[in-house]
Every structure is written in C-alpha cells, then in structure tokens.
Design a protein that fits this description.
Elements: H1 5-18, E1 21-22, H2 23-30, H3 34-46, E2 50-53, E3 61-64, H4 66-73, H5 94-104
Antiparallel strand pairs: 1-3, 2-3
Length: about 110
C-alpha cells in the first residue's frame, strides 16, 4: 500500500503532540475520517513508525516510535532522497526515514 505523506504526517504529529491515543481521537485531532485513520495506523505500525499499546483487541492505543519521531523531524527532506520505487513521489516509510536521517547525520540504532 502506498504511503500518503500528508495524512501520515498529520497522524504522526498528533501522536507527538498529544501522546498515546486511540484512532477516533486521532481522527478528531487531525480532521481526517475515522475510516482513513483506521486504515493508515496499521500501515504506519507495519513500517515501525507507530506502536500499538493496550490490552483491548480492536481498540488499540497508538504511540509514536523513535523512528516515527525521526520521520517527523525530517519530513521536509523526503523529496531529496533517491528511491527508485517512489517514481518521484514522497513516501513515508521505514526506508525513507532511515535514508533521510542518514543524509542529515542522525544515527538510528
């Protein structure tokens, strides 16, 4: 599934600003539909940008990971990273976050 940069960045920014949260609250904070937020959060979790936290199945709380924080810091640099698969589009993925951070000298362990 293709990463859509503006909605993904809005979700990451909301998590950074407000901390752990559930999808309905994130939809409210970002102005995106619950359907969109519920579709994007698992994709961001698969990429390691957010983690799910919570004991209740199908009602997870999400929190920003270190990789997600790095993605926010370098969100303006995604167009500068050469990624043959992107075909000129900016993508917010684990690979693009690591590439952007290495360009700026930030080390990820």
């Amino acid at each position: 599934m293709r990463r859509r940069r503006p909605p993904d960045v809005l979700l990451l920014a909301a998590l950074a600003e407000r901390g752990r949260n559930v999808a309905p609250n994130l939809a409210h904070h970002t102005g995106k539909s619950r359907k969109n937020v519920n579709a994007r959060l698992p994709v961001l979790a698969d990429d390691g940008l957010v983690d799910t936290v919570g004991p209740v199945e199908h009602f997870d709380r999400y929190e920003l990971t270190d990789l997600g924080e790095t993605g926010l810091v370098h969100r303006d640099r995604y167009g500068e990273v050469d990624d043959r698969r992107s075909r000129g589009r900016s993508r917010l993925t684990r690979r693009s976050v690591i590439a952007c951070s290495s360009v700026s000298g930030t080390r990820l362990e």
